[in-house]
Amino acid sequence: MLDVLPISLPVESTCSSPKNASPISNLPTAANTDMKIYLAQHGLALNKALDPLRPLSPEGIEQSSLMAEWLRQQKILIRNICHSGKLRAEQTADIFSRTLKTEDCKAISGLDPTDDPAIIADNLLEDTLYVGHLPHLARLTDHLIGCRRKSPVVVFRNSAVICLTRSNESGFQIDWFQKPILQ
């Protein structure tokens, strides 16, 4: 288990907002070569009844901080972070971006809960962390690894991260899956 320093989210985010969301087609893509990508569910958010914008809860901030610090300690290379533009995903992405000192952190289309996984799958960026929502992340994972079951292969948790690797054109495989363990 890792010690997590309490953090507060800055007023100005390092991540782009949904107003500045990039269409996925405007982003550079990697050819069918070896690559790693990462998928993360946003941190635990406040209940809609408490705040309709659903920002991260204190526990969600702690979860995301813990996972970001774990990735940093493992020396995981994440150059870019893409998120859905929803506040909870943007805040989660911002925590990861600040801890990992990524080159870019932006909102893109194709990561909303009900979006077609093929939108992202056809336009993946190497060494990129995609922060999104359920059920989309589970469907995207299944799509990438070629699973056609009715129930998802991976059960995501708030702030959990999965690493998927692809060797040439053989398709993606699950490399590892890590969820935060709060103290």
Short description:
The chain is of the alpha/beta class and 183 residues long. 25% of the residues lie in helices and 18% in strands. The protein has helices at 58-73, 87-100, 117-121, 136-145, and strands at 35-41, 80-83, 104-107, 128-132, 161-166, 172-178.
How would you sum up this structure, described in words?
With 183 residues, the chain is of the alpha/beta class. It has one domain: Rossmann fold (3-Layer(aba) Sandwich). Helix content is 25%, strand content 18%. The protein has four helices and six strands, in the order βαβαβαβαββ. A six-stranded mixed sheet has the order 3-2-4-1-5-6, with helices on both faces. Helix 1 packs parallel to helix 2. It is globular, with a radius of gyration of 15 Å. 38% of the residues are buried. The N terminus is likely disordered.
Query: What's the CATH H-level superfamily name?
Result: Phosphoglycerate mutase-like
Q: What is the CATH fold-level name?
A: Rossmann fold
The ordered H/E elements are EHEHEHEHEE
> Could you name the ranges where pLDDT drops below 50 across 5 or more consecutive residues?
1-32
Can you tell me the CATH architecture?
3-Layer(aba) Sandwich
Helix percentage: 10-25%
Largest sheet: 6 strands, mixed
CATH class: Alpha Beta
Tell me, rounded to a whole number, the average pLDDT.
Answer: 84
